[in-house]
Amino acid sequence: MNGKNKFLIEILKGREERAFEIKKLNEKFHGTIICLTLNIPGPDKLDELYYYTFNEATKALEASLNINVLKERAPLSGYEAYFVSDKDIKEIKKIALTLEEKHPLGRLFDIDIFYKDLSKISREDLGEPKRKCFLCGEDAVSCGRSRKHSVYELISSIKEKILQYKNSKN
C-alpha cells in the first residue's frame, strides 16, 4: 500500500472513531455535544505547532462556553477534543463561529456542534457564509476541491501564522 492510500485509510479510520465517540457521548449526556479538531491539510496532523494550536483552541472554547473538555484524543487523523454544554445549540454555534472568525488562530479551528440526532448545525443554518481559504479568501471547499494551492503552500502559511501568534504571546 502506498503512502497516499495509507494516509486516506487513517483519515477515514479517524472519522469513524470520531463518529463513534460522538455517538457514545450523545448517549451518555443530555447536553449538546461539541467536537473540536483542527483544519490542517496534508498527512502530518500531529506536530508540536499543531498541538500548541489545539491547546489554544481548547482553552478558548472552554473559556467562551464555561465548560471543560471531557476527552482528548490524538489519532493520526489529528487532535480531537470533546465537550458537552447545556446552552442552546444555536448560541453554542454562534460562539464557535466567533472563535473561528475572531481568534488569531481561529481559521484553523474546526468546531462541530451536534443536534441530538447527531447531525451538525452548519454555518448556513445561522445564515453565515461558508469558510474562506487560508491563502486567498475564496470559498475554502472550492479551493480544496480544485487544488488551487499546494499542500506545501498551505502548510507553510499555517505554520508561519502559528509561529507569529506564539511569538507574540512570549
TrEMBL record:
Gene Ontology terms: biological process: prosthetic group biosynthetic process
Taxonomic lineage of the native organism: Bacteria, Bacillati, Bacillota, Clostridia, Eubacteriales
Signal peptide positions (record): none
UniProt-recorded name of the protein: citrate lyase holo-[acyl-carrier protein] synthase
Catalysis: reaction(s): apo-[citrate lyase ACP] + 2'-(5''-triphospho-alpha-D-ribosyl)-3'-dephospho-CoA = holo-[citrate lyase ACP] + diphosphate
Keywords: Nucleotidyltransferase, Transferase
InterPro entries linked: CitX
Pfam families reported in the protein's UniProt record: CitX
One term of GO molecular function: holo-citrate lyase synthase activity
Top EC class for this record: transferase
EC number: 2.7.7.61
